[in-house]
Amino acid sequence: MFLPYRQTKRSLIINQRRRQKTTAAYRTKSWCDRCLSHQELVRQAACRTLLGATGTYRTKVWCDRHLSHQVLSYQTMAQFSSISIVLISCSFLTIIQRTQSQLALNYYSNTCPQFPLIMQQVITDKQLSAPATAAGVLRLFLHDCLVDGCDASVLITSNAFHKFERDADVNLPLPGDAFDLVTRAKTALELQCPGVVSCSDIISVATRNLLVMVGGPHYKVLLGCKDSLVSDASHVQGNIPTTNLSLSQIIDIFGSKGLSVQEMVALVGGHTIGFAHCKEFANRIFNFSKTSQSDPAMSAFIDVFTPRKFDNMYYKNLKHGLVNEKSNISIKKFLVLRVYRRSDAGERWSRRRRGLMLPPMMGVGSVWER
Question: Could you give the residue numbers annotated as active site?
Fold first, then answer.
């Protein structure tokens, strides 16, 4: 059966157009695949080059981020209908080198002028919904700074090839609310200022703002710190004080960061907010000694009166606190001599806490202004 000439010609035109579209789509897909294959080779070469022999550089994540950016670009050019944008975790900024930078109070005034407002909004919302956030972020900040400086390296999650700081034994109890706040802040900032604000600056500002919210002193934060490319769980051991260390060992840890004994005592006062984890005091309530199942000296929480207020009540309550400070008589006498002077002089303690500096812990300059 023969079709009319016009219908036959129309069918040929339609089929030809279909073939052209199919060919164009195939060429576009092939071109994208070739580009992605090339990018994958470049990524692998870059990772091998930057990774080096130590195996501690986090270049894989950075490379994956740029590869994801290329995938997004090529899919957009090819007009693919389904595009998935994955927000990169805070610790992986676009910065690929840890360089010395000039710190400034208004570091983001031109590149991200909304930075203070965004941070305050996120911090306020999180603290109101989860009051334990302030203590959690303070602890996260110190655990980050005490190991290789305040470089946000504690945010990195380990992979099958390497164990990072976040998964060191002493960092496992770090509260999820603290990580959640950093993630929320970074997400909000990335929507306004992509690839501008570092995670170390987010943690530093969040710590300051949260302390102010719970009654602590206000201090200036110098901005412009860069996130580290190095994170290694083995660096944590011996850099963060634990309950089984002696007084001299604790002083040595803080001394290695350039902190005096007075500043160490001021930092200990950070326990005035928050709560202790079970393993920190389990030995005092279960089989404490041969004659007693529990420690008779333990009669209250760390700060039972104002657990959510940043004040000097921790020092006043230290003698009968939930956590026995290192369970050592010499430490007790030391803290009694140093601490109770502070507990009777709240304003002087507040000024000391406000003026605390951590320059050796920053990696790239100081974070607090004296």
Answer: 143
